[in-house]
Design brief:
The chain is an alpha/beta fold. It contains eight helices and ten strands.
């Protein structure tokens, strides 16, 4: 079984599109009928996220952590306990490509770090900010970006590395560092595609949204 892990905190505006994309990837013919479980971990949600998630054929867990590392860890442990051999992580403000899972698994490694494509740039992003982003981002194989929105890992390698640490931010980066230390094989690939939002109200302080904000504020 393959698990798709999605942490959620007040994502009612974007969650539906995220889940539709994840379920499409889960039904790709290239998976040869292997079971895929989509797991939504609802973290301290006070909006309509829970109702939206329960309208789709996905599993839901609830947490009161306000800590993305802890939430990803809860989800990963749950999926592994159900027999998942591979865990693919994305975010609720992102949309994975239909062949996302197939592209990750085809690389034949312990873990996959994929790239992201920013969705429509908002009015706050002038040409200068967009140029700064593209100058610093390597959308190619061999990149060194780490995104919780596009990360895959085998269950065995995940356990050997110690799993997600309960960090409020950069839990994905820490996991990859721990995977490297444990000797895991890692593909830094542009093949698994994910579109992510350009929103500035980041759910995790210090995360991708705050990075985008810094590009606007840069002189």
């Amino acid at each position: 079984m393959i698990g798709i892990l999605i942490p959620v905190h007040n994502e009612e505006a974007l969650l539906g599109a995220c889940l539709k994309a994840a379920l499409m990837a889960a039904s790709h013919l290239g998976l040869l009928g292997e079971e895929v479980t989509v797991l939504v971990v609802l973290d301290s949600c006070s909006d309509g996220s829970a109702g939206i998630a329960r309208g789709y054929p996905v599993q839901c867990l609830e947490a009161q952590a306000r800590n993305v590392g802890q939430v990803r860890g809860i989800g990963a442990r749950h999926l592994i306990s159900q027999g998942a051999r591979w865990i693919s992580c994305t975010d609720a403000d992102s949309r994975v490509a239909p062949d996302w899972l197939v592209a990750q698994l085809a690389l034949g490694v312990d873990a996959v770090c994929g790239t992201v494509t920013v969705d429509t740039w908002g009015e706050a992003f002038g040409p200068a900010a967009q140029i700064r982003y593209h100058q610093g981002y390597e959308a190619r194989d061999g990149h060194r970006h780490i995104h919780g929105a596009n990360l895959g890992v085998s269950a065995d390698a995940y356990v050997r590395a110690g799993g997600f640490e309960p960090l409020a931010c950069h839990e994905d980066v820490q996991l990859v560092r721990d995977l490297e230390s444990s000797g895991a094989s890692i593909a830094w690939s542009h093949a698994p595609q994910v579109i992510t939002s350009a929103r500035l109200d980041a759910r995790a302080q210090g995360g991708f949204g705050d990075y985008l904000k810094s590009l606007i504020l840069a002189v």
